[in-house]
Amino acid sequence: MEEEELLFLKLITDGNLELQEAGKDMFIGHRAKGTMEGYNIVQKRFKTFCDETTGLSYKVLGIKEVSRYVIDCKIRKVPYSYWMKLKPAIVKLLDIRNVDKDTVFTTMVDKLIQGGKREASEVDLQSRKWRPWHRSA
Length: 137
Hints:
Shape: elongated
Mean pLDDT: 85
Order of helices and strands: HHHHHH
Structural class: mainly alpha
Largest sheet: none
Strand content: under 5%
Helix content: 55-70%
Number of helices: 6
């Protein structure tokens, strides 16, 4: 649980411990476990990419690092499901570091992500087989 969330609960509950505990449970459970696991995969791959790419720094976590990672995802042809987790996972890292997401996710970076999603969705659609509906008589 983040410090900001704890401070918020203290502010609104007037010291009521029962309300604070209930609020903590709600903050902890606001994202499904599977969602957070998906974000962790993206975050780990992003860190590895930054660590292994000359001129990039995971510690900086700036527009250059994110943009280059987004382009690398296109080159690696990550599936549409990965594209859907990409921005939220990195935004979560930015939140933890108290960095304004708008300094990293500019219009240009968002366009790169949208383009990657579009291409990945087209590939996903082409790879699915069309199956007519069958009715049993």
